[in-house]
Design brief:
globular; Rossmann fold; alpha/beta; Glutamine Phosphoribosylpyrophosphate, subunit 1, domain 1; about 500 residues
């Protein structure tokens, strides 16, 4: 986990302004800050060490590389002492060579005149950008960009959903870069590693799929496990449980609304006495939940309409490890939601047939609406919303989130898995089978969410409670907390920003 800031401006800006913006990223990189300011180009990185050293940064480099992420298989790719050397080699020669590696990454680079940058194809690491005729700003978070834009213009009709949607933000002119693409001087220049290219559907028996998944999963977790202490967000559900079964002695963090969902009682059925000693249970009352909810918005400067982010914030705040595993992505990639069993994929689509994203998804799967729906859900829910929130919240607490279900080997397997092995008689059948290697059917807990419980927090957000339309009330609470944020002057507008043609 690191923080990246790149500014290219026609007018010379005060160094103090750049350093103030960079200071917001300090939580993402508490170990070291490095920057360069030449020819109107400010580029900086706030560094978080997991197990590495400063050896790379002690050497002189003609070009400046700011890098955020992990390339887990760098040792297989050449004579590299660490993953930074691999990324530096690729960026300085041919950025498309990054496709040989797997892991989350984002980078920004300059040679003093040109700037280039990009982020991983699965959407784990995010780069935001702002561009007008005088300035280009690229950053790991939205908040530092806002230091250069006062007051920030906010779309009055922006519809919040969880985090944000696809490459959108509520701020006029601030967008997310397209996952898997390289940008040069603020313009898309070439694809590096496109998730779409990972899709090459294959046929196999269910037993073959079982064996392949078990092998890929075990090797992926082995490769992703750091040599330092680490933690796991644990719900005792299928996803976090199969992560736990392949990790060695992680600290465990679980959270729930106080008095709701007796999660600890259920966890006791899963864990040994020794594992229970490593469990940290965070029971949050409705008033605390409301307080944490406003903290997320204040720190990220984003309208957050997902109750799960409050629980993630509480865990990140309590976690004393630098690496935190999560189960993000399993439901969308492996068919985890009940709705997938109920949809009639032959006769209708949950998405607009006029959407460029939907057409891309359908074309990728030869017009198979079921596979296309799961892929579109991944773009909307995981890449567009959830993982951006996870990254921002982990970064706010100096933590690197590791998401095994979003690892390239796992995603390539899931994207090419026959649909009938994702959406069958039970949700996520392959994950369920792996779960049952260690636990029994009686341990499978129905999927739960926070939406009902969080309604208890509405009075503490100055929202009157009625018996109808709680979603509207929560949306009003989100918008109210966002627009009244004292940290940032906002100018509400009616401007719309459309999606780039041919991308989503």
């Amino acid at each position: 986990m690191c923080g990246i800031l790149l500014v290219k401006s026609k007018q010379e800006l005060p160094l103090e302004l750049h350093l103030k913006a960079l200071s917001i990223l300090k939580s993402r990189g508490p170990d070291r800050t490095r920057y360069q300011y030449e020819n109107g180009i400010f580029i900086a990185q706030a560094v978080l060490h997991i197990t590495g050293t400063d050896d790379y940064y002690k050497n002189k480099h003609t070009n400046f590389l700011a890098y955020n992420g992990e390339i887990y298989n760098y040792k297989e790719l050449g004579n590299y002492s660490n993953d930074i050397e691999f990324v530096d080699d690729c960026v300085n020669s041919n950025a498309r060579a990054l496709a040989r590696g797997w892991g989350p990454w984002a980078w920004a680079w300059t040679n003093g005149t040109t700037v280039r940058y990009g982020a991983d194809p699965q959407g784990e690491k995010t780069l935001y950008q702002y561009k007008d005729k005088d300035i280009l700003i690229v950053c790991s978070e939205v908040a530092p960009i806002l230091e250069y834009i006062t007051p920030a213009k906010v779309r009055g009709n922006y519809a919040t959903r969880h985090w944000t949607m696809l490459e959108q933000t509520p701020y006029v002119g601030i967008t997310r870069t397209i996952p898997g693409w390289e940008y040069t001087n603020g313009t898309v220049s070439q694809p590096i590693d496109m998730l779409w290219n990972w899709i090459k559907p294959q046929s196999c028996t269910y037993q073959e799929a079982q064996e392949q998944f078990a092998s890929i999963w075990k090797q992926t977790l082995k490769t992703m496990t750091p040599s330092c202490d680490y933690a796991l967000t644990y719900s005792c559900g299928l996803d976090s449980s199969i992560i736990l079964s392949h990790l060695d002695k992680p600290k465990l963090y679980a959270t729930n609304m106080q008095g709701k969902d007796p999660i600890v009682d259920h966890i006791r059925d899963f864990l040994s006495d020794e594992q229970m000693q490593r469990l940290h249970h965070l029971a949050i009352d409705p008033e605390q939940w409301a307080e944490l909810f406003t903290k997320v918005i204040k720190r990220t400067r984003m309208p957050v309409q997902s109750w799960s982010f409050v629980g993630q914030w509480a865990i990140a705040q309590a976690c004393d490890q630098r690496v935190l595993f999560t189960g993000a992505g399993a439901d969308e990639l492996f068919g985890g939601y009940d709705i997938y069993q109920k949809l009639n994929y032959k006769n209708n689509s949950p998405y607009s047939v006029d959407s460029p994203l939907w057409r891309w998804c359908m074309d990728s799967y030869d017009q198979h609406a079921g596979q296309a729906t799961l892929l579109a859900d991944y773009w909307h829910q995981i890449s567009g919303c959830d993982i951006r929130g996870v990254d921002a919240i982990a970064g706010a607490h100096g933590i690197e989130a590791r998401n095994p279900f979003l690892a390239k080997p796992v995603m390539q397997f899931a994207l090419n898995l026959p649909f009938k092995y994702k959406v069958g008689t039970v949700p996520k059948p392959l994950i369920r089978d792996l779960f049952l290697e260690r636990w029994t059917e009686s341990h499978i807990w129905p999927k739960k969410g926070f939406s009902g419980h969080c309604n208890d927090s509405l009075p503490y957000l100055n929202v009157s409670i009625s018996d109808t339309d709680r979603n509207t009330q929560w949306r009003d609470a989100v918008i109210g907390s966002f627009y009244t944020n004292p940290n940032q002057p906002l100018l509400k507008t009616s401007l719309e920003k459309t999606l780039p043609t041919g991308v989503f």
